[in-house]
Design goal:
The chain is an alpha+beta fold. The chain contains 13 helices and 19 strands. The chain has a domain of 154 residues: Alpha-Beta Plaits.
Length: 451
């Protein structure tokens, strides 16, 4: 306890899980410039009397995380809100769910729309599976009959303060066009499977278009032959079983329903009326979206997917591949003119979207006369992007282990001091190993043995 009373203890994104100790007076001095900037640009201070009982979302807590240049605000939307009851409200603050819990149904609704209209996401990739699929397809289309590849040009860009710069009004316009159903049903079921030596149960939810009178009549007549998303659960589970093995599916029977108007109202409150507590004061976010939200990554993908459809349509031309992992862009092309065009368009900025590129982070494997960028050395073989390196001729992918130079392995993972620390460590270690054993790193059609 003496340590906590003397130091502010925190981790940092730059040093993984390494703990840093700041004297309280030093930490206070470090945070003052950011707090002044936040209250003047991203947030506005509000009086607690402005909150009323009509709010569905509670107040979130903010903590500040050190980074290379200053500190970054992290909003904890997974923590249950502890508020004094709103004026005129009888709700018990101890039972108030977290913001992310309230947004859970909306998350599944957006995922349904994403599955129905993948083009909404533009160049978004959410992990190894997406990167593997797109790179493999791209390479197969470029490979010549003799097995050689054309010269490739690479551009890497980073959007400055991506979540904090999204234009709220523009995002709401896009979401109103994205949600197409009058209402949504949230299907709930369990999955039971044998994993790591024991049976494990997981809960699943899927959103589908809301039931209507025609569906109810069809279901009553032929429950196993209802078309579309409202098939009987047995038929739905059979469909899932076609691509999964050794799993038991159990229907939870009671489903949730959300109407379009309610979903849009909740999204608007979340985006334009996000209330956070910093110290003892309350603030409303006036620019950008909450970064700690369960919806953040998906909203960002939809938002920048719209930008790409209006500004970067040329990146879909043959010989081009555009990837975006949250706010990190990678453009690969066989045409240096296309690479320069992408570079110029993005560096011009798009104020209507709030999109400004962090010019100091832009990296290319060629020299551009108009835009100043970091350029790889002429003898470099690999191009770094999002913790991976891509061979600039073969398009093979490896983990970027150079990131770990000078870092202690103990800072790469956390230790659980609960009842089964050994089991927790083993599970965490296997998760890390599984990430490094994805098919993308071993597929001979993508990764040659020489690389």
């Amino acid at each position: 306890m003496q340590t906590l009373s003397t130091f502010y203890v925190t981790e940092t994104s730059a040093l993984q899980h390494q703990l840093l100790y700041f004297r309280h007076d030093d930490w206070h001095k470090l945070c003052i410039p950011l707090m002044d900037k936040l209250s003047g640009e991203t947030f506005e201070r509000i009086d607690p009397s402005e909150l009323d009982a009509s709010r569905r979302l509670g107040v979130s807590h903010v903590r500040l995380l050190p980074k290379e240049t200053g500190v970054r605000p992290i909003v904890n939307l997974g923590r249950k809100a502890k508020l004094r009851p709103f004026r005129g409200s009888s709700r018990d603050e101890a039972t108030q769910p977290s913001v992310n819990q309230i947004l859970n149904a909306t998350f599944h609704i957006l995922n349904y729309e994403k599955s129905q209209k993948p083009e909404l996401l533009g160049a978004s990739v959410f992990g190894e599976n997406d990167i593997y699929r797109k790179l493999s397809t791209f390479k197969a289309g470029l490979r010549r009959p003799d097995g050689t590849m054309p010269k490739l040009y690479f551009v890497k860009l980073d959007v400055r303060a991506c979540f904090d710069s999204i234009d709220q009004g523009r995002l709401l316009e896009i979401l109103r066009d994205t949600l197409t159903q009058k209402g949504y049903m949230i299907r709930k079921f369990n999955q039971v499977q044998f994993s790591t030596g024991r049976a494990r149960r997981s809960f699943r939810k899927r959103a589908v278009p809301d039931c209507n009178v025609d569906f109810l009549y069809a279901y009553s007549q032929q429950p196993d032959h209802v078309p579309g998303d409202h098939m009987h659960f047995v038929a739905y589970a059979s469909k899932l079983a076609a691509c999964l093995r050794h799993i038991i599916f159990a229907d939870q029977v009671v489903y949730g329903f959300d109407y379009l108007e309610d979903t849009l109202d909740l999204l608007e409150e979340h985006i334009t009326d996000n209330i956070v507590r910093i110290g003892t004061d309350l603030y409303r976010q006036v620019v950008g979206i909450p970064q700690g939200s369960v919806l953040s990554t998906l909203l960002c993908a939809i938002f920048y997917g719209d930008l790409e459809s209006t500004k970067l349509e040329f990146t879909k031309n043959p010989g081009n591949l555009l990837l975006r992992f949250v706010d990190d862009y990678l453009f690969i092309t066989t045409n240096v003119k296309e690479a320069r065009k992408f570079l110029n368009i993005m560096h011009e900025g798009h104020p209507e979207y709030g999109c400004i590129i962090a010019e100091e982070k832009t990296l290319t494997n060629f020299v551009d006369a108009e835009v100043q960028t970091l350029v790889l050395a002429p003898d470099a073989e690999y191009f770094p992007w999002c913790g991976r390196v891509i061979h600039m001729n073969e398009l093979s992918v490896q983990w970027d282990y150079s990131r770990y130079n000078g870092r202690h392995v103990a800072h790469g993972l956390t230790v659980d001091y609960g009842r089964q620390p050994g089991t927790k460590f083993r599970t965490r270690f296997l998760q890390m190993a599984r990430q490094h054993c994805h098919a993308m790193y071993f597929d001979s059609s993508l990764t040659s043995l020489s690389n």
